[in-house]
Amino acid sequence: MIVPRRVALRSLFTLAVTAFTGGALGRIATRTPSGATRDPHAFDEMYAGRRLLGFTGPDGGPVALVDGRPLHLMRCADGGYVTPIDHYESCPTPLEATRAAVDELGTSRLSRFAGAHGVHTDPTGGSPRGVHA
After folding, report:
1. What is the pLDDT of residue 30?
2. Full domain range(s) for residue 92
3. Are the C-beta atoms of residues 73 and 83 closer than 8 Å to each other?
4. H or E segment at 100?
5. Domain holding 25: CATH number?
6. Which of the 8 DSSP states describes residue 93?
7. What are the tens digits of pLDDT across the range 71-117?
8. In terms of pLDDT, which residue wins out, 2 or 40?
9. Is residue 25 part of a domain?
10. Angstrom distance (rounded) from CA 80 to CA 15
11. Residues 66 and 110: beta-carbon distance below 8 Å
12. What does the pLDDT read at residue 46?
């Protein structure tokens, strides 16, 4: 049986996201030993009927998930954060930016492409890079 390319790529992406978030969720759930620093971007809460999860990604930046789907967070010049859902309101923390996105979404589900907003592949074959300064 031949698997269509789109199905194969979607399956690989889902597997990669699951593997990445599974490891990060384990770090959040693990109790911090005394003297260790707590993840500054960690949050896990129910808000407006949505499960919000945040943690520090491998690049040191914040990662946010809404109902298990990644939400792209962009750092602003004022030190705050915006999302592709709400580009106009700079929020002081990743959690507040994620809540603002949920407020804007209402009952709509977050797009599966929201996590890749603003990320482009380097034409030389390098790793993805953000376009927002």
Report:
1. 46
2. 6-29+39-119
3. yes
4. helix 94-105
5. 3.30.1880.10
6. S
7. 989 999 999 999 988 888 899 999 999 999 999 998 888 877 666 65
8. 40
9. yes
10. 31
11. yes
12. 96
Q: Which two tokens stand for residue 109?
A: 């589900």
What's the token pair of residue 8?
């194969």
Q: Is the residue at 53 inside a domain?
A: yes
What DSSP designation does 13 have? H
What pLDDT is attached to residue 9?
53
Only one residue has tokens 């797009």, namely: 111
Which residue, 62, 72, 82, 55, is CA-closest to 120?
72
* Unique residue bearing structure tokens 């945040």: 54
The span from the CA of 21 to the CA of 121, in Å, is 21
Q: What is the mean pLDDT of residues 47-68?
A: 93
What's the chain's length in residues? 133
How many domains does the chain divide into? 1
Give me the residue label for tokens 């808000």: 47
Assess if residue 127 is contained within a domain: no
Residue type, 76: C
94 part of a folded domain? yes
Q: For the chain, give me the number of helices (H) and strands (E)?
A: 2, 8
